[in-house]
Write a structure and sequence with these properties.
The complex is a heterotrimer. By secondary structure, chain A is mostly helical. Chain A is built from 15 helices and two strands. Helix content of chain A is 73%, strand content 1%. Chain A has a two-stranded antiparallel ribbon. Chain A starts with 8 loop residues before the first helix and ends in a 14-residue tail after the last helix. Chain B has one domain: ABC transporter involved in vitamin B12 uptake, BtuC, CATH 1.10.3470. Chain B has twelve helices and four strands. In chain B, the strands form two sheets. A two-stranded antiparallel ribbon of chain B has the order 1-4. A two-stranded antiparallel sheet of chain B has the order 2-3. In chain B, strand 2 and strand 3 form a beta hairpin. In chain B, helix 7 crosses helix 9. Chain C is of the alpha/beta class. Chain C contains twelve helices and ten strands. In chain C, strands 6-7-8-3-9-10 form a six-stranded mixed beta sheet, sandwiched between helices. A four-stranded antiparallel beta sheet of chain C has the order 2-1-4-5, covered by helices on one side. In chain C, helix 5 runs parallel beside helix 8. Classes of the chains: A mainly alpha, B mainly alpha, C alpha/beta. Chains in contact: A-B, B-C. Chains A and B meet through helix 6, helix 12, helix 14 and helix 15 of A and helix 5, helix 10 and helix 12 of B.
Chain lengths: 347, 285, 260
């Protein structure tokens, strides 16, 4: 494989880039076709728009859990921070649309980074991450329910700013969120190919070895927390403006976190396209089970147990094995093997 | 102020008992039981159903505790077995993810079958004055239950052979095995005990406020915070942390608003992790 | 091979002996046959034969990393056996969990001691007697053997000195009234005076009829206690014989006793 790349560096580089990004383009092209079938049904458009939003959440979650092994049990809450911040600023304080979204994103990012920072500085970080993020989920929920003056409490909040934008039309929002998914996927790939991605991989494979070789474990985990949380906040904020109405249930733990976890595990932790595959699959399953909506949560629980029991060798090695399998699949379909720049080849 | 403080103790005793059950399981097998609160709620709903069929409290409570203990034992004997074969971080991560799944199954089941069910235990009687504050009988009985359970647990762990064996596994599993103690058996039985304790928390709580079928996640999170602040694996730490956090909780709710309490608890957990990761009573730095 | 198997003295002459002379002895209390074991699929102990007769004191000597600890932990059920088997009296130990082995009367004192640090001396000792009823006589005999423990019965194990912890570890093992006491490097971390004292205590226990198997890097001490010894090298039994023979063996003298 190395023999073909020696002739022309620019050609091989172009080939490599093609190999790295063509799966994203292909996915985008396929997903762009979906509304052709559903564009006349407002209900179905809502379903597939929410599917895209969840794909975005899951890619963000994948950067946090898949890349750095931090089990953030507050994806809904972080998206909700973005959503409610932006909605409150526009609806109650008359802020324009874009700045409100930026602030919501930054706030979610800051909180996510802080949670990472608290949890990963000690051993037992899997435990501590779970505890602080779950506690944050509950804090967020109680805050939304308690500060009725800002959030409308249980009655929810009308979101006004985007009333005349394409975010509230029937079909266009789908493409907005598809665009977001594509941006997130490109971002994922960019990170993966950068030195940050190399550090992520080395500390996922063997944290102790990574630490010994000078990788600052804490710093890179906090990076992942910051980036992933910003992505969650942005998706949540855009979603709030798309829905035009948000309530505590919009970003609730049971509605978001469990689904995102199932989507990621189903699609494949630590793989680029896994979150999208998982989101599409779960959206289809959910639609098929629409008459048994009450059973859904129980089903999610069963799926979590079954999927993780399938990984008898443990989550961490399974992640590696799964990644291995997926990269092999990827290699078969793309001509060039992807290697991060400036890194020593790892197997 | 005195009344707020006493209410805090009432709540704190319940939180302590909740945290103890979680911390025991963690100490024994490294499993963070993310369905602890759901076990409590499951017990509560069983009790509520039994009570609706006209049975007495003396019938309903044991059945509810048994149900919670049974689900706990079942989890240990089935899906936790592959977890115990792992070591280190992989064990911790798989254990908590699987218990998250179990909790979600229980949540989903309760939401499907009993969406508006709640356990409410009313203890009649005139308020009794404690240091000048009239306390409802329900609160006092609830506290008495939590205290009695805590004391019983203390005696069990300190003075019975099986209790000592339990502590020895928490302390040093290999040492325990060399003494002829079977960690798997102890773990299973303590998982059951922990489930029953969760059910008992539900009983105690139902005497002060209704335990609704969707309260599982919240109870789990409270248990987690208490266990972390008390130091994971430390039974006495969990009890002390529970009482302290209960007081903090009611005081902050009284002066700021209910919505702030979880944020205060989250802050307590975060500060503990940053400054005293072994918990408030922890010896290890 | 049949001739050499008839007499233990010949096996100490230098050749590796795949069959231990006592392996054929049906009276042996502990019999390890062709045992292999290790970690993560890699065997550290290879095809070891070893016996300990009732009332005997046997030492396993060898340098650091020779596989002594792995051998003892495998016998006790802490590490799974990959090949061969271990018998204790008429019982097969192989495949039993460590707690079942302990209950059969095999007490193990690991080099790291594995005491219960936040529990008192008394509680540690009580846990040693876990398989039986609490037994005041055994407790008295342990306090008689280690008066120090009696003086500190309320103290937490974790706050005691290295020597005291060693006493407690042995005391806890004795509380189960074992038929076989196995010790791994009992002198780890002890000053020379304390190490000699520890061996004096083991000698006393031996004199009372306790069967002892000990792994030791400090070869002179080990040979002073043991009737027989096995020299372990790279996981295999390199030499075996009576302590006196081994002490005279030029190879042992050079490698382990520092005498040329």
């Amino acid at each position: 494989m190395s023999g073909i790349s020696t002739q022309s560096t620019s050609a091989s580089r172009a080939l490599e880039l093609f190999g790295a990004y063509s799966p994203i383009a292909l996915t985008a092209a396929l997903l762009a076709l979906v509304p052709l079938r559903y564009s006349d049904s407002r209900t179905m458009m809502t379903v597939i728009i929410i599917g895209m939003v969840f794909a975005a959440y899951t890619i963000a979650f994948n950067i946090i859990l898949g890349s750095t092994g931090q089990l953030f049990l507050c994806t809904g809450a972080l998206a909700g921070i973005g959503g409610f911040t932006s909605a409150i600023l526009t609806s109650k304080h008359g802020w324009p649309f874009i700045p409100s979204i930026v602030l919501g994103t930054l706030l979610a990012s800051a909180i996510g980074g802080l949670l990472s920072w608290v949890a990963v500085r000690r051993s037992l970080d899997a435990i501590f991450t779970g505890v602080v993020t779950l506690a944050f989920s509950l804090s967020y929920e109680n805050l939304v329910l308690g500060r009725k003056d800002l959030t409308g409490g249980e009655n929810g909040l009308r979101v006004k700013a985007a009333a005349d934008t394409i975010l509230t039309t029937r079909v266009a929002p789908y493409y907005v969120f598809l665009g977001l998914v594509v941006v997130y996927l490109v971002l994922y790939r960019l990170i993966e190919r950068s030195h940050v991605g190399w550090a992520f991989r080395s500390l996922r494979d063997d944290e102790v070895a990574a630490e010994l070789s000078g990788v600052n474990v804490t710093r890179y985990r906090v990076y992942a927390g910051l980036i992933g949380s910003a992505m969650l906040g942005l998706a949540g904020a855009l979603f709030a403006h798309n829905r035009e109405f948000i309530a505590p249930t919009t970003f609730a733990f049971g509605a978001v976190d469990v689904r995102v976890l199932v989507m990621l595990v189903f699609g494949g932790i630590g793989s680029m396209l896994g979150p999208v595959i998982g989101a599409v699959a779960l959206t289809i399953v959910d639609e098929a089970l629409v008459d048994f909506a009450q059973l859904r949560i129980m089903l999610y629980g069963i799926v979590i147990v079954v999927l993780f029991l399938g990984f008898r060798r443990g989550v961490v090695p399974s992640v590696a094995a799964l990644r291995e399998r997926l990269t092999h699949l990827g290699r078969r379909s793309t001509p060039a093997a992807v290697k991060p720049p400036g890194s020593t080849p790892r197997s | 102020m005195k009344a707020v403080f006493l209410d805090g103790i009432v709540l704190g005793l319940q939180m302590g008992l909740l945290g103890v059950g979680l911390t025991l399981i963690y100490g024994l097998g490294g499993v963070l039981n993310l369905s602890h609160g759901q076990f409590a709620v499951l017990g509560a709903i069983v009790m509520a159903r039994v009570l609706q069929h006209g049975a007495s409290l003396w019938m309903a409570v044991p059945l509810g505790l048994l149900a919670a203990a049974a689900v706990a034992v079942l989890s240990d004997l089935t899906i936790m077995q592959p977890v115990y074969r792992l070591r280190g971080e992989a064990r911790v991560l798989l254990g908590l993810l699987l218990m998250l799944g179990v909790g979600t199954i229980i949540d989903g089941y309760l939401e499907w079958k009993y969406p508006i069910e709640a356990l409410n235990i009313r203890i009649s009687g005139d308020p009794i004055s404690i240091i000048g504050v009239p306390m409802r009988v329900g609160s006092l009985v609830a506290s008495a239950i939590a205290l009695a359970a805590g004391a019983a647990l203390f005696v069990f762990l300190r003075y019975t052979t099986f209790g000592r064996a339990t502590r020895s596994i928490i302390e040093d599993e290999e040492g325990a095995r060399l003494c002829g103690i079977n960690p798997a058996l102890v773990r299973t039985l303590i998982f059951g005990l922990s489930g029953a304790l969760a059910g008992l928390v539900a009983v105690s709580r139902a005497m002060t406020s209704p335990v609704i079928s969707t309260a599982g996640v919240e109870l789990t999170i409270l248990a987690l915070i208490v266990a972390v602040v008390g130091g994971l694996g430390s039974v006495s730490g969990a009890f002390v942390a529970g009482v302290l956090l209960g007081i903090v909780n009611t005081v902050s709710a009284f002066y700021i608003g209910t919505y702030i309490t979880t944020i205060v608890l989250l802050a307590a957990a975060a500060l503990t992790i940053v400054f005293r990761p072994a918990g408030i009573l922890g010896r290890r730095a | 091979m049949a001739e050499s198997a008839a007499m233990g003295s010949q096996s100490a002459s230098g050749a590796a002996t795949p069959h231990s002379p006592a392996a054929a002895d049906p009276e042996a209390l502990l019999r390890v046959e062709s045992l292999s074991s290790g970690y993560l699929g890699e065997d550290v102990v290879l095809d070891v034969n070893l016996t300990v007769a009732a009332g005997e004191a046997v030492a396993v000597i060898g340098s650091n990393g020779a596989g002594k600890t792995t051998l003892l932990k495998t016998i006790c059920g802490l590490i799974p056996t990959t090949a061969g088997e271990t018998r204790f009296g008429s019982r097969r130990l192989t495949g039993l969990g460590a707690h079942r082995v302990a209950r059969l009367g095999v007490a193990f004192v690991p080099a790291e001691r594995h005491l219960f640090n936040t529990m008192s001396v008394e509680e540690n000792l009580a846990l040693g007697a876990y398989p039986h009823r609490p037994d005041p006589e055994t407790l008295d005999s342990v306090f008689e053997l280690f008066p120090r423990l009696g003086e500190r019965r309320g103290q937490h194990a974790g706050t005691m000195s290295g020597g005291e912890q060693q006493m407690l570890a042995v005391g806890r093992a004795l509380m189960s009234r074992p038929r076989l006491l196995i010790l791994d490097e009992p002198t780890t971390g002890l000053a020379p005076v304390l190490a000699s004292e520890a061996y004096a205590t083991l000698g006393r226990l031996r004199g009372e009829g306790l069967t002892v198997l000990v792994a030791e890097q400090h070869v002179p001490l080990a040979l002073s206690l043991a009737d027989r010894a096995y020299v372990l090298d790279h996981g295999r039994v390199d030499l075996e014989g009576s302590s006196a023979e081994l002490a005279d063996n030029p190879e042992v003298r050079r490698a382990y006793l520092g005498i040329s």
